Amino acid sequence: MQAMNQKAVSPQEPAGKNSWSPTSWQSREAKQQATYPDHDELQRALDELSSLPPLVTSWEILSLKEQILQAQAGNRFFLQGGDCAESFAECNSEVITNRLKVLLQMSLALTHGLQKPVVRVGRFAGQYAKPRSSDMETREGVTLPSYRGDLVNSVEFTPEARRPDPQRLIQGHSMSSMTMNFVRALVDGGFADLHHPEYWNLSWVKHSPLAEEFQRLADSLGRAVNFMETISGRRAGSLKRVDFYTSHEALHLHYEQALTRRVPRQEGWFDLTTHFPWIGMRTADINGAHVEFFRGIRNPIGIKIGPSADAQQLKQLLQALNPDSEPGRMVLIHRMGASAIEEKLPPLIRAAQDSDSPVLWVCDPMHGNTETTASGIKTRRFRNIMSEMETAIEIHHQNDSHLGGAHLELTGEDVTECTGGARNLNEVDLERAYKSVVDPRLNYEQALELSMLIVSKFDKLQ
Ligand code: PEP
Ligand code: CO
């Protein structure tokens, strides 16, 4: 689909290192964009957005880059997680608190188990725009625009709800800012009070086939938390506010552009909607608008790499996005599927090794393992998620590389969206608490279980 708002396009020079500007993406094909019925209305919203304060700061972005650099060197583990799509309706205290809690607990289990600090990155405070397989959706003879995330339209199947509404861009900025504000306040106020037994819900552990191993890990984690508190006199896990970073798929390029700014005493441009934007698999085209936009921002950036990517494409992307081979800039998030990873990943690892760019390899074991049940429910099997994660760890190890992180769709709520896990949820359970309007997420227990499995797998490599 064409980039919306063609009016704003100014004639661009052919792409080259020096011709980048926050609008230069507009001369390229922009996939997965909304088609707004009224361009003037869109322009007014973008003008307003351009005058609003940014959501993050350049120094936070640069400190994340420093942490990614350490992860590239194997000295940190990168944990990125949150909803497939945030929704405006779920911008509330309970959802945000529970999501932060599960991410903090996972990161504590990983820090303790892997004996290295974790880079904590939430898929939140802006994860509001979604790529779709089709622009239009037809139900019982009625065809309407597809739901593209709350930043664009609303999920209900009515013409009013599905009309792309530019005011949602302003609302998305506000909701991101509220989420951010609450997360910062929680983290600052000692929310990470990790030593109360009731705070950790580990009742699932006894249902796992690895119950004994997990119980040992949980016990030693408890002892470590007490020990840290005793020697430091501080509550374990009390974090500085810069220790939690945000991320989203930077899909809606007009939105990203409106918050891409220069800042005093720094060179270049920063995308100030988030610390860590990533390019989705469907928009990682070397000649496309998204790659053009990302090439000019100074944030660390992620690229989703799917099973159709080849070594040549990966080399071109690294060259285009990190021509100066800057450490800390590139994160490659592979999402192959449990059945494809063994064949697809090794040539890509070699391609990255042949390029000059340092990279951090992260596994997204979610998006290659989505399936639909006979009754039409989108789900993922915990067994496949775990298998892709474990295979990824092994393949990197065998290829002189290192898996440095996990990218997960999860929630702190007790949902039933993925089957399996210690409690062995089945297809009937999916009907009980299925809330996602897009992809199925790990629930609280499954997310903690996966982090313990990651620790266990790395342990076995030693
Ligand atoms: C996502 O992360 O929600 C997503 C759409 O992923 P991908 O681009 O890897 O399909
Ligand atoms: Co998703």
In the predicted model, the low-confidence regions spanning at least 5 consecutive residues are 1-15
Radius of gyration: 21 Å
Strand content: 5-15%
Quaternary form: single chain
- Bound molecule types: phosphoenolpyruvate, cobalt (II) ion
Terminal CA distance reads 49 Å
Tally of individual helices:
12
N-to-C order of helices and strands: HHEHEEEHHHEHEEEHEHEHEEEHEH
How many strands, which pairing sense, and closed or not: the largest β-sheet? 8 strands, parallel, barrel
Task: Describe, in plain words, how this protein is organized in 3D.
- With 462 residues, the chain is of the alpha/beta class.
- It has helices spanning 39-51, 58-72, 93-114, 159-162, 167-188, 211-232, 253-258, 289-295, 311-321, 341-354, 382-398, 444-461; strands at residues 77-82, 118-123, 136-139, 142-145, 244-249, 260-261, 270-271, 276-279, 301-305, 330-334, 359-363, 370-372, 378-380, 403-409.
- The strands form 4 sheets. It has an 8-stranded parallel beta barrel, surrounded by 6 helices. It has a two-stranded antiparallel sheet with strand order 3-4.
- Helix 3 links the parallel strand 1 (77-82) and strand 2 (118-123).
- Helix 1 (39-51) packs parallel to helix 5, helix 3 (93-114) packs across helix 6 and helix 3 (93-114) packs parallel to helix 12.
- The longest helix is centred in the N-terminal third of the chain and has 22 residues, at 93-114.
- The termini are far apart.
- The structure holds phosphoenolpyruvate and cobalt (II) ion.
